[in-house]
Amino acid sequence: MTRPLIMTGIDLPLEPSCGSTIWCNDVYQRLAPDFRTTFLALPGSGGWQHSFEETTDLAAAKRPYGPEFAQYAEKLTEEVERLVRERRPDLIHAEHLGFGLALAFARAAGSIPLISVAHGTDVIAAAENHQARDALIEIVNASTAVAVPNAAMADQVNALTEGKFTDRLITVPWGIPIPDHPPVRPSSGRRLRLLHAGQLDPNKSTATAIEAMALTRDEHHLTVIGSGGELPGLMARTGELGLTLRIRFEAFMPREELWQRFADFDAFLFTTKQLEAFGLVAVEAQAHGLPVVYCDLPGLRHTLGAGALAYPPGDAAALAACVDQLADDPELRRTLGAAAATSARRHDINTTTAHLRELSKTVMGAAARV
Known about the structure:
Rossmann fold
């Protein structure tokens, strides 16, 4: 029997440059026994060893929210309508409640059942931009079900849509591939080796981590791994604070390389200051035995559990105090590291896939009965 076909994708380059594309790669690889998948994306470098069964490059030139976004969405819709006619998918998964491709999926789906998936940046944008909110509402309205990673995200989507689609919001807990044995090598000194990794954008608030380094009692060292538009400003701020010998910047690296690097650090700093879908890289750090110091956001306290210390959003002094607390107490570092590895095991990607598989089958079954 032919496996049902899911059409999905994100109008981002086909690269492992953000949590969304990595998450999709993890999930759809594991859905393969039950579903075929075709993943639509913007052309990438071609060097990513992804696991998607089939990919299709999108031709429309991406445009952000603004005067050209509507025309961009129209061109994407034309592309998607053609692809839907050619491939005849049994189900559509629209990733991100507001991206142009998700909007095109919503408009092109017709009688094909559609599950939309909230990723976080889309919900933040909808709270700040009327075009993004209009797109989110249109996508949710066209969806049979809306997958959200946690209750906090469900509350935000519910508020943005004025409670009109509450019954469509289904929690699908996110996860990661869990390593067998965390390769941690904690140091015994007072000067900690700290890591911050991820996309360098305003919401990630890497500046908070940099400014905290100027406020700690001891001269800890911070490595920032990632790429993005904030990098020049972050490097300039490092120089202004006289921290060039204590803060090192490294370019984005593939997940496998990053995971190898986790063992070189004593703690992970997760400074996102607004809504967060999951905190993928923070959970990855925990799975490798690193305690996490994180910005106390809705949902993250549950996600990161006992292996983490929280500080108020954007408060560099409070973050510095948490770092000093870890430096003062090696036993606390060991205890948090062990708790982090245990906590991360609650977030197995196989659980995510099981939830999404069952939701997909349920939605398809309901559509077949209509």
